[in-house]
Design goal:
It is built from 24 helices and 16 strands. By secondary structure, the chain is an alpha/beta fold. An eight-stranded mixed beta sheet has the order 1-8-7-3-4-5-6-2. Helix 2 runs antiparallel to helix 3 and helix 23 packs antiparallel against helix 24. The structure holds phosphoenolpyruvate (PEP) and magnesium ion.
């Protein structure tokens, strides 16, 4: 392999499978798009008028945001918007920008950016941590004003044609707002396998590769890229022979996928007829459509924060009710597990919703936000309860870490039922109450808390990161994020056994559930309900139908007796190869091993 060609290959971490060849678009923060222009002296007042108008529009928007968030969440959360207004109305701040435009003859957006940078540099030098933390506020304000000044740049990647998104980082809120019809693949410099952006890529059914060092500086808009989500590889402007090889691989993959479609009407059971229910994880009505198309048994996890991120605002009780009602109606009698909001960690609104935390995954996240912002909590519980009159709902609470939290949540839940009863609003009184097991503390006391809930759902994405102290979103420690670590497996086993003993349903809804190599182990451990990305359902069914339950139990017993994650991985991978090699329609998932990277 020639050195020149090898340079075009960048190795990263596979985050979503599949192969795509297409044009790149570099997704950038709008602050990087500002260009400096000279403005003639006679036009500087015009430039100032343009800026004044933009600032006025932003102030109006901020006041609206303040009102909405005060109503929906609380005054304290909404204060941030007023503090942004105060900065924009600060005579010193704004007059500095006017002066810059007049004296230096530069365009408004470049001047705003310069002013923001100067303030940030000054704040950086201060000892006061409160002032230091205002740095983020300044960049938020700058973005808002600049977006008004260069509105055509709003969609930084104009999605007129299908493209591959290249970015330094993609947040879940960036990702969810991309048009899934137009985005062929993601390739990012940072991010982990189980970051929410990666999970979203899998649910879009498109390839994604993360952890690609130096990618953004090597790619420019319009470059031809291969994104190989199977091998975790990106090729920039590949030569013809490489394109040809990848096109052949794509064809093999396509025919494999077409074969998988034939499984849709078949039951999801092992070779010796043990039923394993395959559920879907969804975040939208589009996901639901895919889930139903691929024959999901029901919805094992509805991540309700995703629609909020999509619309970039808090949804009112009525808006939520109407969304949940639609999901239930379309689910047509299937069970739908609605999980309450899981904000924090890596899921924030872009503007104002986040406040700075050193360790967001260990901080103000999920149920902790809910138990503090009770109004928000109550609105969502009421909306879910009201929707329960239209279908089969289960309610699921995320990131529970103690018995105390279960009791507080239960109390609020019961009080909302009581409120609706008094108001004469219909709801189902039989709605099962469940919790996510994603913090090790509750896995350890599962035998106690199982008595207080109706079902359990194991969230391995978080359970792994919290058990192993490895940030799921950090590519630097990706190799330490080990789903097969014996400590993780033991916790899963404990929870499964406890639930079985108590005769309570237990589901596993982390990304492990959709990984064909892990499915034999999980089913062998007794997990007969697996909830996954809709895109993984058919491959999961294929594996499931390939061998007997007895064999799977044997695999699980052997795996649980091993003490190294690597030994377990090897065992499962050999087993998988045995199954896959036996299948004539299996894809040939190997790309360019002969190249040196
Ligand atoms: C999990 O943690 O496994 C889970 C399903 O929740 P999320 O990925 O949304 O954190
Ligand atoms: Mg989780």
């Amino acid at each position: 392999m020639e050195k020149e060609i090898a340079k075009r290959f960048i190795k990263g971490i596979s985050a979503s499978p599949g192969i795509v060849i297409g044009k790149a678009c570099v997704f950038q923060d709008i602050l990087y798009l500002v260009e400096r222009r000279d403005v003639e002296e006679e036009h500087t007042e015009q430039e100032i008028a343009r800026l004044k108008q933009a600032v006025r529009q932003v102030i109006d928007e901020l006041i609206q945001d303040n009102l909405r968030v005060s109503q929906d969440i609380g005054k304290r959360e909404a204060e941030i918007f007023l503090s942004h207004v105060a900065i924009l109305e600060d005579p010193y701040f704004i007059s500095q920008i006017f002066q810059d435009i007049r004296e230096n003859g530069i365009n408004a957006e470049a001047s705003v950016l310069r002013q923001i940078d100067e303030f940030r540099a000054a704040f950086e030098k201060m000892d006061d941590p409160y002032i230091k933390a205002r740095d983020q506020d300044l960049s938020d304000i700058g973005k808002r004003v600049i977006q008004k000044l260069i509105p055509s740049q709003r969609n930084i990647c104009d999605l007129e044609e299908s493209i591959i998104i290249v970015a330094s980082e993609l947040t879940p809120s960036d990702t969810i707002r991309l048009d899934r019809e137009k985005v062929l693949a993601f390739a990012t410099e940072s991010g982990g396998k189980e970051s929410h952006a990666a999970i979203l890529a899998r649910s879009f059914g498109i390839p994604a590769v993360v952890g690609l060092e130096g990618l953004v500086s090597k790619v420019k808009k319009g470059d031809l890229l291969v994104v190989d989500g199977d091998m975790g590889m990106v090729v920039i402007n590949p030569p013809e022979e490489v394109i040809q090889n990848y096109q052949n691989l794509q064809k093999t993959r396509e025919s494999y996928r077409a074969e998988l479609q034939k499984l849709i009407p078949l039951p999801s059971e092992t070779l010796d007829s043990h039923e394993v229910r395959l559920w879907a994880n969804i975040g939208s009505l589009v996901d639901l459509e895919y889930a139903l198309h691929f024959g999901a048994h029901g919805i094992g996890l509805f991540r309700t924060e995703l629609p909020f991120l999509m619309w970039r605002r808090f949804l009112s009780e009525d808006e939520q009710f109407s969304l949940y009602q639609k999901v239930l109606t379309q689910a047509n009698g299937r069970e739908v597990t609605i999980r309450t909001l899981d904000f924090g960690g890596d899921k924030f609104f872009e503007d104002g919703g986040s406040h700075r935390e050193k360790n967001p995954f260990l901080g103000y996240r999920s149920i902790r936000v809910f138990l503090k912002e009770k109004d928000l909590f109550k609105q969502q519980i009421r909306a879910i309860l009201r929707a329960s009159a239209y279908g089969h709902v289960k309610i699921l609470f995320p990131m529970i870490s103690s018995m105390e939290e279960i009791r507080q949540v239960r109390e609020l839940f019961e009080s909302m039922k009581e409120e609706l009863r008094r108001e004469g609003v219909p709801y189902s009184d039989k709605i099962p109450f469940g919790i996510m097991i994603e913090v090790p503390s509750v896995a350890i006391i599962a035998d106690q808390l199982v008595k207080e809930v109706d079902f359990l759902s194991i969230g391995t994405n978080d359970l792994i990161q919290y058990t192993l102290a490895v940030d799921r979103d950090n590519d630097l420690v990706n190799s330490l994020y080990q789903p097969l670590n014996p400590a993780v497996l033991r916790l899963i086993q404990t929870v499964t056994e406890v639930a079985k003993k108590a005769n309570k349903p237990v589901t596993l809804c982390g990304e492990m559930a959709g990984n064909p190599q892990y499915i034999p182990l999980l089913v062998g451990m007794g997990l007969m309900d697996l909830s996954m990305n809709p895109a993984s359902l058919l491959e999961a069914k294929k594996i499931l139908r390939s061998i007997t339950y007895e064999r799977w139990k044997w695999i699980a017993e052997r795996a649980l007796g091993l003490s190294l994650a690597e030994e377990i991985r090897k065992l499962l991978s050999e087993e998988y190869d045995r199954i896959v090699l036996a299948a004539p329609d299996a894809p040939e998932i190997q790309a360019f091993q002969e190249y040196e990277f």
